[in-house]
Specification:
rod-shaped; 57% strand; alpha+beta
């Protein structure tokens, strides 16, 4: 009788351990921060020279705005999902 009771309790504990701790049963969402590179456009004045083509006319330096792109690191919040065991989900992981 004692052996059957021990085996029964052991089997019940084993089933509970498998169900609550080993099997990942529930997907839990949590907020995380993602880093990414975003393009940033900025304008600079670049010089260029012009001449009229006529003899004796000096070259003229003029400036024009030129758009340039650089990539900067930024952060944004994202929702990520993780599979946890049922026990962790019940506790409030």
């Amino acid at each position: 009788m004692s052996t059957k009771l021990t085996i029964g309790i052991g089997a019940a504990v084993l089933v509970l351990v498998i169900v609550f701790c080993v099997l990942p049963l529930k997907g839990v969402a949590y907020e995380g921060i993602e880093k990414y590179q975003a393009p940033e456009i900025y304008y600079v004045s670049e010089p260029y020279t012009t001449h009229s083509g006529a003899a004796g006319q000096p070259e003229v330096t003029q400036y024009q705005d030129v758009a340039k792109v650089r990539y900067v690191w930024q952060e944004r919040p994202v929702t990520q999902y993780k599979k946890v065991s049922l026990l962790e989900a019940l506790i409030g992981y």
